[in-house]
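We close this part of the discussion by returning to an individual protein. Part of our work consisted of pairing the sequence of a single chain with a tokenised description of its backbone. No coordinates are needed to read the tokens, only the vocabulary itself. The amino acid sequence and the backbone structure tokens for this protein are reproduced below:
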Amino acid sequence: MSATRPPHVLTITCHDLGRYLGCYGVASVQTPNLDALAAAAARFTGAFCTAPGCSPSRAALATGRYPHSNGVLGLAHHPFDWGLAPGERHVAALLGARGYQTHLFGLQHVTMDVARLGFDRVYGRGTGRDVAAQVAAFLGGPLPDAPLYVEVNLEEPHRPFDQGGVAPDAARGVSVPPYLPDNAPTREDLSGLQGAIRAADEAVGRILAALDGAGLADTALVTFTTDHGIAMPRAKCTLYDTGIETALLLRWPGVADGAGRVIEELVSNVDFLPTLLAAVGAPAPANLQGRSYLPLLRGGPYTPRDAVYAEKTYHSYYDPMRAIRTARHKFIRNFATTFAVEVPGDVQQGGAFRSDVARYVGSTHPDVELYDLHADPWETHNLAGRPEAAATERALDTRLWAWMAETGDPLLLGPVPSPAYRRAMGTITAETQRAQRTRREGE
């Protein structure tokens, strides 16, 4: 990279992947391309998302602001219809204003109005194979003089795992996490997941080969990450680590040299945009809520995070919860009495859920949850309410309320209305409004 020219930027994301990769210690999944990228990149082991659902997490990644601040508190597609609040700026718009030519390949799940994001060109969705072919064709053609921001969002390994004719993969067996029942239906489910991840890895390999073929691999800033944890019960849609853990690989030869380096510090995906803006020499908007982790790669001064925060408000239904995670503890406050864990409809079709339904829907949330992640990494022993944990519980609860207040969390003002509720209230008749006022005045 020259002293005056900003780098080309390639960002690749997967859907519902978590850290289920060979480079993160899952021996049964075949991910040679991502493992090779990890060997040439910095690999973050303390990376977490702000939300365990696709749209809120991706919106935080793209805006550097928490979901309850950027307006995407639930799924963006119809009939849920969440979208960026007025005034929110996507990474594509911010880089476009800095002279970048911006290209989107694959899905985007932040708004129904893609023009709102600010991409110069948007390509079609499809399987990883299709999207990788589009990227390869673009990089193999004449490229502009302007620096490029290329965002590639792969569908895989979102369910159904066999989309595009992808076959299950159990050639190396399967790795059953302890939070799932270890039985034949779960293993069949996981073999489907592994097949989809293998397909995503092949797509990533083709994209990186195309970047190399275009002569850009030695200078481009490449980031690979995912939106949240895997699409299994007690993972996706929960604030347990299994729901908010993310893979994060960053390669930038000659600038952030970290080949094979493992970075253990806590980072949040709300930190991605501040990091990217710092890397390209762009000023960070004053309203950003994340912080740049570029000094971790460059060896500059850096104050590590002592906590990350996560939230869920809506996914399939209203299920508000907020969490703080430190290196040692997780504290979750639940604001509604719903099932112990939300299991999305597509996950309910899989064997892991159907083989032991009561495990997930046989009880409800406690008001608060506290876990010692050193002694209990799978978050199965709730310490909330125990005298020996009272000081820790009180301290984390105080910090969580403070974060909600500092970031203007609408949950502090009462239940958060959905777009459907707002649509319904937009049709209320004048007669009904008068009757409601009369009733209130009479109370």
User: Anything to note?
Assistant: The longest strand covers residues 318-325.
